[in-house]
Amino acid sequence: MEQQNPSDVNRRSFLIKLTSVVGGAGVAAACVPLVSSMNPSSDVLAKATVEVDLSGIPVGGMHTIAWQGKPVFVLHRSPEEIAASASTNGVIDPEPDAKRAIKPEWLIVLGICTHMGCVPNKEGPGWVCHCHGSQYDDSGRVVHGPAPRNLEVPPYHFLSDTKLIIGKA
User: Which residue in 76, 130, 132, 157 is the catalytic one?
Assistant: First the structure.
């Protein structure tokens, strides 16, 4: 067996360390585009929040707003609708109306049925999903059908009496 020269051992150790550092830097550089591709695109970020002008919605009226590609129902409730929503009798998923609506006259809910993701229609007091028969009251709480839970309340806050921001800001 041949004896190794100490300078060869040092050189080999240095080359192994240098190759490891360069290889690690190459892997890190290759990961940057991969991680960047997972960030939301600018068109999605543009839809992160939506400002809604409430002045054009009459009492008893409803507008549907698109937020993050989903329909959001903005319902301007009458005093009678607010009073009817105070009761949780007959509600499958009882959640107080006061918890669902920051201001009682305005109800903001995602317009997506919690059963299969259909879009319910506003009919009389509440919404009806004709696809599978779920029914929701004027607080978006499920009262009948296969839907397991209430219509979801998105994050929102009021800028003024006539301006609403849907989404986290």
Answer: 132
